[in-house]
Design a protein that fits this description.
The chain is of the alpha/beta class and 342 residues long. The chain is built from ten helices and 16 strands. The protein has an eight-stranded mixed β-sheet with strand order 8-9-10-7-11-12-13-16, with helices on one face. Strands 3-2-1-4-5-6 form a six-stranded parallel β-sheet, with helices on both faces. A hairpin with a 2-residue loop joins strand 11 and strand 12 (240-245). It starts with 5 loop residues before the first strand and ends in a 12-residue tail after the last helix. It binds nicotinamide-adenine-dinucleotide.
């Protein structure tokens, strides 16, 4: 496997799948042999843009092609289990777009099947490969930030028309994956609140709180109801606070010193103005490498070297467990305000 050409197939080339086809086609040592989609228009799109890729409506054309060793699955989340299990049964390594599955036991089944068959499974938690997240993890590891207290993440954009999944399972997989990756612990408790304002069936806005064994916390806000796209992560630590704003073109990550505060217990400030403010603010250099490229390279490397991808099946499973807990909590019991009628 070391230097051999790796031939792959992509199943599902709707909105996201073509990005996988493009990225994989640009990689040395990788050939996208086939792409499958149920919709003729999507097959035509791929055939026009990537004439070297054979298109088909039938996933078995991909799964029964013995020259293909790995498949990338970018079909809707509710189909991931069936497509992934069929691919693993056909002896293919699988890369599955996030979320790994929409039910915990289905995610467990995929991970167990891959393990039993000695095949690789990776999950498309793209942000684990984002140079900004890689930089933040590096800052945490060097101790420069001090003790990690909590993080807060906001991810909002207008929802897709005719959605078949709720905002929690569509947007929050990114934030949950980032939180687990940066905290480095598995949460022990999850509480969530959600609302549907314009859609009777699917949650459109959600707030999710994760509690970790160390006492650290993460709060995640996802919404499909704001037209202004927001991607903001704050990581508050004892010495410094990191702000990662993915909408910024240049200074995506800024590191704030703890700052100055002379409001209390300060003899010198007693007769002067009392104030507080941030200390110095530094924007570390962030590599411009495309996260999707790093993600695909990591999966291909894991096949070549028999190593584990960063975003492996276990990581995908833990994200599904958190999303499942959040879903169960969304419309659950709350504490009522004293005097208010429930
Ligand atoms: N990593 C990211 O940032 C990111 C971004 C967007 C979407 N995604 C993920 O990618 C996946 C796909 O999302 P999308 O927005 O592209 O959805 P989409 O609905 O636009 O595309 C899915 C495609 O899969 C095809 N399909 C469904 N079942 C099939 C089957 N059995 N065989 C062949 N084709 C089949 C559909 O015809 C459709 O064209 C989801 O898991 C989503 O969460 C990831």
């Amino acid at each position: 496997m070391k230097d051999e050409l790796i031939r792959v197939g992509v199943i599902g080339v709707g909105y996201w799948g073509p990005n996988l086809v493009r990225t994989l086609s640009e990689m040395d040592g990788v050939e996208v042999a086939r792409a499958a989609d149920l919709r003729p228009g999507r097959r035509e799109f791929i055939a026009r843009r990537f004439p070297q890729v054979t298109t088909t409506a039938e996933i078995n054309d991909v799964l029964h092609d013995e020259s293909i060793s790995a498949v990338f699955i970018a079909t809707p989340p509710a189909t991931h289990r069936d497509v992934a299990i069929a691919a693993l049964d056909a002896g293919k390594h699988v890369f599955i777009e996030k979320p790994l599955a929409t039910v915990v036991h289905e995610a467990e089944e995929i991970v167990a099947s891959a393990k039993a068959k000695h095949l690789k499974v990776a999950v498309g938690h793209l942000f684990l490969y984002h140079p900004a997240v890689i930089k933040i993890r590096e800052l945490l590891t060097t101790g420069e930030l001090g003790d990690f207290f909590f993080l807060a993440s906001t991810r909002c954009n207008p929802g897709p028309p005719q959605t078949k999944v709720d905002v929690l399972w569509d947007l929050a997989p990114h934030d949950v994956a980032i939180a687990l990756h940066l905290v480095g612990e598995t949460p022990v408790e999850v509480t969530a609140r959600g609302a549907r304002f314009t859609n009777a069936q699917f949650t459109e806005t959600a707030y999710v709180n994760l509690g970790f064994p160390s006492g650290r916390m993460a709060q995640i806000n996802v919404s499909w109801l704001t037209p202004n796209k927001t991607r903001n992560l704050q990581l508050v630590c004892s010495k410094k606070t990191v702000v990662y704003d993915d909408m910024e073109m240049v200074e995506k990550v800024r590191v704030f010193d703890a700052g100055q505060d002379n409001r209390v217990n300060s003899k010198e400030s007693a007769s002067g103005p009392l104030s507080y403010g941030p200390g110095s603010i530094v924007a570390p250099a962030i590599a411009s490498t495309e996260p999707l490229r790093l993600e695909c390279e990591d999966f291909v490397r894991s096949i070549r070297d028999n190593s584990e991808p960063v975003s492996n099946g276990q990581c995908g499973l833990e994200v599904v467990r958190v999303l499942d807990a959040a879903s169960r909590s969304l419309y659950g019991r709350a504490a009522y305000v004293t005097g208010a009628r429930p």
